[in-house]
């Protein structure tokens, strides 16, 4: 089976010479350039480190700016709703507790005063404990009349 390169070169034989010339130029350029030394600090490293935050900003945030703006708006709405709803329940809760405590104190005071005057009825007997439920069964008496 022929490779795609062989098929293309068979169809376009004139291109092979130009491809060889390009290959020779690239190899000559690469072989003449000195290899970078990983231990030495290049003068461009400082420039790269200065551009790094800008690159991160562009890649992570600026490319998705509409999504980030939508998320920020949603969070602002949630925070505003939360802050607005905090005042009402605490006010209701405080007034409800105080009113409930006041009513309870008034009832206790009323019972104490009635007991001093002797106008109280005897305390009701304690409630009887609930009986345990009977076991359920499918037994039906035979003498029961059917309709």
N→C terminal distance: 94 Å
The largest sheet is: none
Mean pLDDT reading: 77
Helix content: 55-70%
Instruction: Flag low-confidence runs.
Output: none
Derived structural class: mainly alpha
Count of alpha and pi helical runs: 4
Cα-based radius of gyration, to the nearest Å: 46 Å
Number of E-state strands: 0
Described by the principal axes of the CA atoms, the overall outline is elongated
User: How much of the polypeptide forms β-strand, as a percent range?
Assistant: under 5%
What is the H/E string? HHHH
Describe this protein's structure.
This protein is mainly α and 147 residues long. It has a domain at 65-117. It is built from four helices and no strands. The radius of gyration is 46 Å and the shape is elongated.
List the helices and strands and how they pair.
Blueprint: H1 4-11, H2 15-32, H3 44-61, H4 65-117
Descriptive key words:
mainly alpha
Short note summarizing the structure:
With 147 residues, the protein is mainly alpha-helical.
């Amino acid at each position: 089976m022929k490779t795609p390169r062989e098929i293309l070169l068979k169809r376009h034989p004139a291109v092979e010479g130009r491809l060889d010339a390009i290959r020779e130029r690239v190899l000559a350029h690469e072989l003449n350039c000195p290899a970078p030394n990983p231990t030495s600090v290049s003068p461009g490293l400082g420039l790269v480190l200065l551009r790094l935050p800008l690159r991160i900003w562009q890649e992570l945030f600026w490319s998705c700016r509409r999504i980030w703006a939508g998320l920020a708006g949603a969070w602002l709405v949630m925070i505003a709703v939360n802050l607005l709803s905090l005042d009402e329940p605490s006010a209701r809760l405080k007034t409800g507790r105080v009113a409930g405590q006041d009513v309870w104190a008034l009832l206790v005071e009323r019972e104490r005063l009635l007991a001093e005057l002797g106008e109280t009825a005897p305390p009701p007997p304690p409630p009887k404990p609930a009986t345990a439920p009977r076991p359920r069964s499918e037994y039906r008496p035979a003498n029961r009349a059917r309709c």
